[in-house]
């Protein structure tokens, strides 16, 4: 079982282990390599086969939970010691502190939405963007120009909302926890951070920036906090059944082939430190 730690708590060895495994997965030429994860996120950004699996829907949280676990398992093939860390943006709020250090995710892009200049992912020679919504082959960031980092009180206001999600089960849902986390409803934790990092992170191919996975790990941790408070049982997820275009609790999350219900209690697979 894995323990997911804060990016600020990683040792130098743990940082270099994660960077090394990400680069090995990027260099893998076939199968579920790094670019497969980028392509899958792009393909599932909007409706697939009549279902909103990944975004603007109740299954936003379980879909990304499985997506992160699939990536984590793919990284463990190269280094079993790797567990995904989370970027707690309520405490690590600097453009040069964790996770944006030169031995880890690297720093900001140049000149507003330009290429990242420092760290292991700077420049297309170190980290080539192959699958993208735009043409640049180097990783770009535009930190602080848009969006904002949520505060711990923003997170607290979300965790106390007892209802998982409400009709119409999308980006216009006016209540529930999920849309407050995803971004359609204040405080909109998830979308603000994508925009705050900017560059590739503000596009449908956002997983091109490895910080995507550290951000989403923290989003998953917020859901985990909510679950610790309100329960892991299947009836905590909504809708329970019978809603078209929405992944109900007993329906399958594609392309992963697992039900929402099977994702809810993560404690046998990993916990958060
Ligand atoms: Cu996201």
Helix content: 25-40%
Low-pLDDT windows of residues? none
Under CATH at level 1, the class stands as Mainly Alpha
Unique ligands: copper (II) ion
Number of strands: 6
The CATH homologous superfamily is named Di-copper center containing domain from catechol oxidase
Q: How many separate domains? A: 1
- The ordered string of helix (H) and strand (E) elements is EHHHEEHHHHEEHE
Structural class: mainly alpha
* Major β-sheet strand ordering: 1-6
Mean pLDDT: 97
CATH architecture: Orthogonal Bundle
**N-to-C CA distance:** 12 Å
Gross morphology = globular
CATH domain topology: di-copper center containing domain from catechol oxidase
Structure description:
The protein is mostly helical. It has one domain: di-copper center containing domain from catechol oxidase. Helices cover about 35% and strands about 5% of the residues. The chain contains eight helices and six strands, in the order E-H-H-H-E-E-H-H-H-H-E-E-H-E. The strands form three sheets. A two-stranded parallel sheet has the order 1-6. A two-stranded antiparallel ribbon has the order 2-3. Strands 4-5 form a two-stranded antiparallel sheet. The protein is globular. The mean pLDDT is about 95. The protein binds copper (II) ion. The site of copper (II) ion (CU) has 4 residues, from helix 6.
